[in-house]
Amino acid sequence: MMLLRAAAGFLFAAMLSAQTAEPPLRLAIAGLVHGHAAGFLRTAQGKNVTIVGIYDPDTSLHKSYGSRFGLNDSVFFTSLEKMLDTVKPEAVAAFSSTFDHPAIVEAAAARKLPVMMEKPLAVSMEHARRIQGAAQKAGIPVIVNYETTWYRSHAAIWKLVKQKDSMGPIRKIVAMDGHEGPKEIGVGPEFFKWLTDPVQNGAGALFDFGCYGANLMTWLMDNQRPLSVRAVTQQFKPSIYPKVDDEANVLVEYPNAIGIIEGSWNWPYGRKDLEVYAQNGYTHAIGGNVLRVRMPKDKSEQTQTPEALPADESDPVLYLTAVARGRLKPSGLSSLENNMIVTEILDAARRSAQSGRAVSLR
Predict the structure, then answer these.
(1) Does the structural domain 2-147 have CATH classification 3.40.50.720?
(2) pLDDT for the residue 46
(3) Is 29 helix (H, G, I), strand (E, B) or coil?
(4) What superfamily would CATH give domain 148-313+328-360?
(5) d(CA 56, CA 76)
């Protein structure tokens, strides 16, 4: 009898689970020229997602991605609007040039679809305001995806410095992001072409990697707009990157803190590290999984292993699904509010580098 009851209970639980399980997210991809598209599609494999449509005007990319990911020809489109109207997705993930972000958001907004795009938000404040206006008018969520958003180490910094307030107020933030250079690490030609174009990318390393620091800094400063921005950009490799900077250093001034952004295509190795100095201690994130901390009571620096992130906030695919299904609203590092300020910092940094003077944001 007990075995029969247990079996009946198991069967009921299985039926209930089947009834309450979510159907796969119907997801459309807008653009394939951003090299992060491949990583996103790999992440999506095995998740509760169906790629219902992929737009890119370059049919050679259709063949390449179709072969790599086992996608049928019927999934691919050369018209964004036709794709959206034909496949009727629940959400859109954009992997275009940064310059094309407003057009993609406007197309999605016209159909009331949430959008996730690869960082940064925009090449200029004009483009950022177009995105903001379309999103607000349609009432759609806009998410900006950074690799560093899903770092356990950054969530641990937030808990230490903001939630627990264990170090006092922040005084200095240093963000170091970059790698050896797009050509040096072997990015695809479709990515290299626009990434090294000042119109399509907004700048070089300044926008490509400076955005990480601006994003994290804005988050840790509670979306506070800076007082001023000063920047120096350089070309150490003009024969490879003749049109854009490959080195960018930005000083971001706040009323009671300073931010230093180091974005580079000249690091001897790839890195995404963050240092936060507070009044009574400091913490360093070394990549995504290592945290070094020195608290007021510590005699020496301690190394910690950060905790796992909540499931819906652990990668971009799960996060987009949670937003599209209404479980989460974009916030923090992913939010449009944060990334409007990020664009303002990058735009000011570009102007500062051109003029050789600080740009006031007061």
Answers:
(1) yes
(2) 86
(3) strand
(4) Dihydrodipicolinate Reductase; domain 2 (3.30.360.10)
(5) 8
